[in-house]
Hints:
With 384 residues, the chain is α/β, with parallel strands linked by helices.
Amino acid sequence: MGDTRAGATAAAGDTAPHPDPHGTHAQRRRARRISWVIPPVWVRRCVIAPLIVLAAFVWLPLAAWLAVIVAGIVSVALPGRARILRVLFIAGVYLMWDALALVWMWIMWVSSGFGWKIHAPVFQRAHYRLAGRMLRSLFTAAKWTLRLEINFQDVDLDAMAPGRPIIVVSRHAGPADSFIIVEALINKFKRHPAIVLKDTLQWDPAVDTLLNRVPTQFVTPYRRRKAGAPGGTEAIAGLASGLGPEDALLIFPEGANATPKRRTKRIADLRAAGHGALADRAESMPHVMPPHPGGVLSAMEACPEAAVVVVAHTGLEQLSTVRDIWRELPTDKAITLRGWLADPDDIPAGRDAREEWLYSWWERVDHWIDEHEPKSLDGSSRAT
């Protein structure tokens, strides 16, 4: 019997499981399962729901900016025009450009004592530095995406007028020519520009905020001008009278982008006002519009020590409307700017003589444009 019990015990020992120090296999499997027990209401309402909303508001902008970046890369890498991708990229860059500028200007506003010292010289210089950096970044993106090339021909303000304020008198044709000249004045020539611009540019929040903190005159049409408000000529004279050695006053005497319709109307207005001789001269200048002399001459009278620099440019003439811009994308344009320093000895005295003098300069600008037809970057000419 002893042998029988021993055998039974041995048999039982052969079939019994060995002790598992980590628990049974089933317990381990249950431990690996994810628990889907519903959390308390306060967790669902106060933690999970806000996290979902936050994730949506963070992820959606990130996804949108990812699309903008991809659009920019693809538009350059792929052959063809890829207009939609180029527009998406430039629009995204401009939106970010505007937003960053506004945030930085808010910081400067707070730093100035909540606007108390915002017009002090130190903050004026800070705003010009900001404008220079933002315009440089914007043009870098535009050159890359739109395949633009900007060339300066005989434009050296340091050699032209060292240590003197300057009055820059420029033609006005195509979008962004004012941005191109302002960027060059700040970054290339280290000048602080006082600018005369149309008041509609104040629709852009960053442009509106920045230019209302530095010397600027927004020109408002007479029919929309408030009663008692100074006219454009008076305001320009006020800007010019405050120019210092490092400053530049930028004026577009044509008043608006040159288009065939505006040019025809301006010539007709000259004839109706009894200026037949000037109208005849304007008709012989097909590339430009007759200049309004009032602002330029008032600036020269208010700051007689300033040097006058006349600027012409080509490359933007075909971009007058949104349809034109869409048709030309990518622009593939070489934009050329040419500057002349007006000899002080050639500037006559008297308003009528100076008006004739300005028309003579505009004839020179028109002739230069005629000889420098815009070219695409592949070298082919494009008629103006």
